Amino acid sequence: MAINIDEMKKRLIQRKKEILGSEGNLSEAKPKVVNPDDRDNGTQDKEDDAVDVTEEQQEQAILADDQALVTEIDAALQRIKDGTYGKCLADGKPIPEKRLQAIPWAAYCIQHEEQLERQNAAEEDVLSHDCDTHYA
Ligand SMILES: [Zn+2]
After folding, report:
1. What is the DSSP letter of 32?
2. How far is ligand 1, taken at its centre, from the CA of residue 14, in Å?
3. What CATH number corresponds to the domain at position 81?
């Protein structure tokens, strides 16, 4: 069965909207104004601050991850325009439909994706990155 490009395009755009939408929500959910009543309770505040820092770090990690995904989605949308969507960037072979259904922005066949992941993993060892890859 051939890949339904229109369907994939819809899914890519939808995913991008979700990511950009959630980024907006995250920013809005960051309260800058502190309720004066809460400030009366000193010990409670310290705990709250600690939680805030952790949440902010998590938020930044999510944003970096989302940003990378948006870049991948944009690249996939560009490939749809170029008519190269669904083909491995490394060897031009068709990416299996099952894989595209799971990862509509996939740019490589499984073989080359694994190769890249091994390369990335090696680089991450050198740079001591602790980023999780989002491909299962
Ligand atoms: Zn390939």
Report:
1. -
2. 26
3. 1.20.120.910
User: 130 phi and psi, to 5 degrees?
Assistant: -120, 25
> Nearest CA to 131 among 32, 64, 34?
64
Distances in Å between the alpha carbon of 79 and those of 57, 106, 129, 136?
A: 33, 11, 29, 23
pLDDT in tens, 36-57: 665 555 555 556 666 676 778 8
Give a yes or no: residue 78 inside a domain: yes
98 CA → ligand 1 middle, Å? 15
Spacing, Cα 82 to ligand 1 middle (Å):
18
| Number of structural domains found in the chain | 1
